[in-house]
Amino acid sequence: MRRAGLHRQHGRNVGGSGFKGMVAKLSIAAAVLLICTLSLFFSASRTSNVQSNFRREIRLEELWTNADSDGWRPSSTPRSHWHPPPSKSNGYLRVRCNGGLNQQRTAISNAVLAARIMNATLVLPELDANSFWHDESGFHGIYDVEHFIQTLRFDVKIVESIPENEKNGKKKKIKAFQLRPPRDAPISWYTTDALKKMKEHGAIYLTPFSHRLAEEIDDPEYQRLRCRVNYHALRFKPNIMKLSESIVDKLRAQGPFMSIHLRFEMDMLSFAGCFDIFTPEEQKILKKYREENFAPKKLVYNERRAIGKCPLTPEEVGLILRALGFDNSTRIYLAAGELFGGDRFMNPFRSLFPRLENHSSVDHSEELVENTRGLAGSAVDYMVCLLSDIFMPTYDGPSNFANNLLGHRLYYGFRTTIRPDRKALAPIFIDRENGRMTGFNEAVRKVMLKTNFGEPHKRVSPESFYTNSWPECFCQTAPKNPADKCPPNYVLSVMHNELNKQATDTNSTKA
Ligand SMILES: *[C@@H]1O[C@H](CO)[C@@H](O)[C@H](O)[C@H]1NC(C)=O
Ligand SMILES: *[C@@H]1O[C@H](CO)[C@@H](O)[C@H](O)[C@H]1NC(C)=O
Ligand SMILES: *[C@@H]1O[C@H](CO)[C@@H](O)[C@H](O)[C@H]1NC(C)=O
Ligand SMILES: *[C@@H]1O[C@H](CO)[C@@H](O)[C@H](O)[C@H]1NC(C)=O
Fold first, then answer.
1. With contact defined as beta carbons under 8 Å apart, do 408 and 166 qualify?
2. Which tens digits make up the pLDDT trace of 291-341?
3. Closest Cα partner for 118 from 193, 32, 228?
4. Choice from 87, 500, 507, 508 to test ligand 4 binding pocket (greatest atom count within 8 A of CB)
C-alpha cells in the first residue's frame, strides 16, 4: 500500500520547526519523538518485496506517493554496545572539505567517522570557499553548529577550534601537522599513519578532504554513524530551513510537485565533454573551461553519448517524463545553477512542461535573495528537492548534488525518485533523432521499468553508500535477519547514562 497525504506532516519533522523552542537538554526526547513519528509513519506501509525490479507497469498515481517500504524504516541508532567518546582523546583532527554542498556533506560525515575511529577530538570541519560559487560562509553560515555538536555527543567530541595549551604558564597553540590522505583510505590508514602523526604532534590537518575514507566499510555501526551525521546532525540553519519550508508550503498549496535537478551547467557539460550540440562560441567556452579544470582526454561526442556519458538535455528530460505519462499540468520545481545554452535548450522543455518554478519564481522577497547566495542557495534547493513528492536527477555522476539527495530521500521514507538510465536510453534518443519516432514512448517506458523508483534496494558498486545506505541504516520490527531488527528505544537513554557516568568519573578523578 502506498500512502499519500502525509508529506506535509512528515516534512515538518525533518524541517525541525516542529521542535522549535525545545532546548538542547530536550534533544534526546526530540530524537525519540522523531524515531517514534517515523515508526508510526512506516508501520502502516509494508507490502511488496525489496527487489521490485519486476514491475510490469508504471502507474502515475503510485509515483506521486512514497515507494513501498516493505516494512523497513530508517534507523541509525547503534544496535550493539557503543562506547561514549573516550575522556582522553588522542589529539585533534582538522579537515578541510572541498567541493560543493553535497561533496562537503559526505566529507563531514567521513570526518566524524575518522575522528571516532581515531578516538580524536574533531575540530568543526572547515568548508572550502567554493571556487565555483565564490562562497565563504563556512560551516557556521550553513549548518546549525549547536545541533551538530549535541546530536553527535555520544559519538565524538567536537570543538570549534583547537584550544590553546598552557604549559609552564605559557600559552601555546598546537600546530596541526598537515597530511594528505590517500583517496578512499582504509580504516587502517587512520589507525596507523594518521594516528602516529596525531600522537606526535597533538593535532593533524587533513587536506583536501573529499573521498578520503573508504565508503564500503565492513562495520554497520560505523556506517550508521555516517547516517547519524548526514541525516540527523547536519541540519541547515533556521533561516535556510524556514525559507525552504515556505517555498515547499507555497508549492504544495497547489498540490503535489516534482523537483528536477537539471544538471545542464557549464562545469558538468565541459567535464562530460559533450560539445557538438552547442554553437561554436559556446563550444569555445566549454573547451576553455575544460582545459582549465580537468585533465585532458580525447572526447568524441557520438561515442560519449552512445554510452550515456552526456548529461540529458532539458528536452530529453521532458520527453522521458512525457513517456512516463506526466502531462503539461505537472508542476516542476527546477533546482539548478546557471543553465548553459539558455532558452534554446529550455524552450523545448518549457513547451512540454509550462508550469515551471524555481526559488526566485516562488518567492520574490528580499529575504530570499539574501538567503540564496552561494552555498545557502544550494541548501534551499537541497531542502526543496528533499521534501518534494518526486525527485528526478538528470545526471548522477560522482559526488554530485543528486547523489546525497537520493540517499537522503531513501532515508526520509523511500520518497519517489526517477532515475533515468542514460546508457539504456541513448539508443532510443538517437533513433528518434534519425526519424524513427514510432514506439518511442514504449521503448522509454520499457527502460524505465527496470530502474529503481526509490524502494529499498541492494547497493551495487559503483553505487555509493551516500546514495543508498540500505540496509545498514534501516531496520525492521519483524526482520528475517536478526541484524536488521530495530533497536529498542531505551538505547538512547543507555548511551546518555554512560556519557553522564563518564563525566562524573572524570570530575571525581579531577577532584
Ligand atoms: C578508542 O577507544 C576505545 C574505547 O576506549 C578502544 O577500545 C579503542 O582501542 C581505541 N582506539 C584507538 C585507535 O585509540
Ligand atoms: C496542455 O495540453 C492541452 C492539450 O493536450 C492543451 O489544450 C492545453 O492548452 C495545454 N496547457 C498548457 C498550459 O499548455
Ligand atoms: C527562475 O524562473 C524565472 C521565471 O521563469 C526566470 O526568469 C529565472 O531566470 C529563473 N531563475 C533561475 C535562477 O533559474
Ligand atoms: C563535571 O564538571 C563540570 C565542570 O567542571 C560540570 O559542568 C559538569 O556538569 C560536571 N558533570 C557532572 C556529571 O557532574
1. no
2. 998 999 888 988 999 998 899 999 999 999 999 999 999 999 999 777 899
3. 193
4. 507
CA-500 nearest atom, ligand 4: 13
- 502 ligand 1 Cβ < 6 A: no
Q: Closest Cα partner for 243 from 132, 416, 128, 387?
A: 387
Three cell numbers written together for 385: 528537492
Q: Length of the chain in residues, anyone? A: 511
Annotate 391-416 with three-state secondary structure. Answer: EEECCCCCCCHHHHHHHHHHHCCCCC
Which amino acid is residue 305, in one-letter code? R
C-alpha separations of 157 from 171, 181, 261, 440 in Å: 22, 22, 36, 56
Q: Which one, of 150, 127, 152, 151, lies nearest residue 140 by Cα?
A: 127
Rounded to the nearest 10 degrees, the angle between the axes of helix 374-387 and helix 101-118 is 90
Q: Give CA–CA dist 449/278, Å, rounded.
A: 32
Pocket of ligand 3 (CB under 6 A): 358, 360-361
- How far apart, in whole angstroms, are the C-alpha atoms of residue 241 and residue 252? 16
**Site residues for ligand 2, CB cut-off 6 Å:** 328, 354
Residues 6 or more apart from 2 whose CB is under 8 A from it? 45, 62, 65, 66, 67, 68
90 lines ligand 1 (CB under 6 A): yes
Percent of the chain residues topping a pLDDT of 70: 84
Q: Give this prediction's pTM.
A: 0.85
Nearest atom in ligand 2 to the alpha carbon of residue 328 is 1
For the chain, give every domain's residue range: 92-233
Which residue's C-alpha comes closest to atom 12 of ligand 3?
A: 358
Q: What is the pLDDT of residue 169?
A: 76
**Strands of 57-110, DSSP E:** 72-74, 92-97
Residue 458 region, left (φ>0) first, then alpha (ψ -120 to 50), else beta? beta
> For residue 504, how far is its CA from the centre of ligand 4 (angstroms)?
7
Segment 454-469, tens digit of pLDDT = 999 999 988 999 999 9
Pocket of ligand 4 (CB under 6 A): 500, 503-504, 507
